[in-house]
Amino acid sequence: MLLAVIYFLAFSLFLTWAVVRTLERREKRYRLGGYYSGDALLAGTAVFISSYVINFVSSFRFREQFLYIQLFMLGCLLAFEKIKEASYRRSAAEITNRLLEEIREMEGGLKSDPANSAFHERLSELHERLGDTEKAAAHAATAATLDPTEKNRWRLKTLKQDLEEKARSTLKQKNNNKLITL
Fold it and tell me: ∠ at Cα 28 (43, 14), nearest 5°?
């Protein structure tokens, strides 16, 4: 009986971990925003309780089908992960396309008014959202030159710090890779 309870707990914890990890990928991998950790906690709690109860009841009431019930729950988990992953990819692609379209519009506006700091500020924000910190810093520098407000200077400073941190991280990773190959 004790081994069964330990198995039920382990299985339920695994399902909970997988659901929470899948829900957290929305923000961590795809940077889609709108993520609240309480959502994953609530979903994880529901999965844990329901899977534990299902395991407990099915182990006594449906002994012959217990393995099939376990496989069904794992199949549901796999389907959930695949559906959510596809949804995240689709949303990320839509957002990326909208950002790229807005970048094209802003660049078109810059051709007609190259001294407009608002265009450079917005381009800096857009490139940062796309993960291109170098271009974001270049547009922030131009915006700070054209309109030397505290906001523009602060943005440029923050982007430069991000670039330095990224360079340090890349260098550290290269050094670690060299140590591993030795």
Answer: 40
Tell which residue, 88, 77, 74, 72, has the closest CA to residue 28. Answer: 88
Predicted TM-score of the model (pTM) = 0.68
Distance, in Å, from the CA atom of 151 to the CA atom of 154, rounded to the nearest integer, reads 5
| DSSP assigned state of 108 | H
Rounded to an integer, what distance in angstroms lies between the CA atom of residue 136 and that of residue 162? 11
Q: For 77-107, write each residue's pLDDT tens digit.
A: 999 999 999 999 999 999 999 999 999 999 9
The type of residue at 63 is: R
Secondary structure (3-state) at 25? helix
Distance of CA 124 to the CA centre of its chain: 21
User: Domain 113-181: which CATH class?
Assistant: mainly alpha
What is 149-170 written as a DSSP string?
-HHHHHHHHHHHHHHHHHHHHH
Rounded distance, CA 154 to CA 75, Å? 50
CATH 1.25.40.10 placement within the chain:
113-181
> Alpha carbon of 108 to those of 13, 43, 93, 112, 113: distances in Å?
53, 45, 23, 7, 9
Rg (Cα) of the chain, in Å, rounded?
Answer: 25
In the 8-state DSSP scheme, what is residue 116? -
Task: Output the CA torsion 105→106→110→112 (10° steps).
Answer: 40
